[in-house]
Amino acid sequence: MSRTQTLIYCSLFTALIAVGAFIKIPVPVVPFTLQFLFTMLAGLLLGSKRGAVCVVAYMLLGLAGLPIFAEGGGIWYIFKPSFGYIIGFAIGTYVTGLMAERMKKKTMLHYLAANFTGLLIVYGVGMLYYYIICNYVINTPIGVWPLFLYCFILAVPGDICLCILAAVLVKQVKPVLNLQLRRAEG
């Protein structure tokens, strides 16, 4: 992939992640958005490093003050308990992309395994951050069970569906993207 192609695709996915923040379904505590779908697709289609760059660019733009997070933007956002999920997106995207790069067979099950691994990372980092910020920074204590209920059980079913959707999309899009990239290089 040329530098120009890399810039275009990374910019596109950074924009898609930002747009995904505004496509939301209200659920208690942590809003369900399409950000997770676009972060997974970035890792699966662009690879670990480029995918993570997209998420980090999104994160930096939001922290710089652009209102592109699910509930606004600005440096103060690091004190929002849900910011941990954004950090989790960056790590999860990298790992999902790394798993996709190392796949010998590009099957739906392999893509699903990569997606579910990314999902566990996003939720693990997100919930840990949520717990720490609530209990030790902003003084709004939350117990482990309510955290698990509101930040995992109620939120994860939609993201499981997004894992499946991403695997289906990548299985269809990746061969076409690879063909386009080969034509552009040749």
What do these coordinates show?
The protein is about 75% helix and about 0% strand. The chain has 7 helices and 2 strands, in the order αββαααααα. It has a two-stranded antiparallel sheet. Helix 5 (about 110-135) packs antiparallel against helix 6 (about 145-155). It is globular, with a radius of gyration of 17 Å. The protein starts with a helix and ends with a helix. The model has no long low-confidence stretch (mean pLDDT about 90).
Q: Low-confidence parts lasting 5 or more residues at pLDDT below 50?
A: none
Q: Give the helix/strand class.
A: mainly alpha
User: What is the CA–CA distance across the termini?
Assistant: 11 Å
DSSP summary: helix tally: 7
Using the CA coordinates, give the radius of gyration.
Answer: 17 Å
Taking the sheet with the most strands, its summary is: 2 strands, antiparallel
What's the number of extended β-strand segments? Answer: 2
Mean pLDDT, to the nearest integer, reads: 92
Q: How much beta, percentage-wise?
A: under 5%
Q: Assign a percent range to the helix content.
A: over 70%
Question: How are strands sequenced across the largest beta sheet?
Answer: 1-2
The topology string of helices and strands comes to HEEHHHHHH
Which of globular, elongated, flat, extended, rod-shaped describes the shape? globular
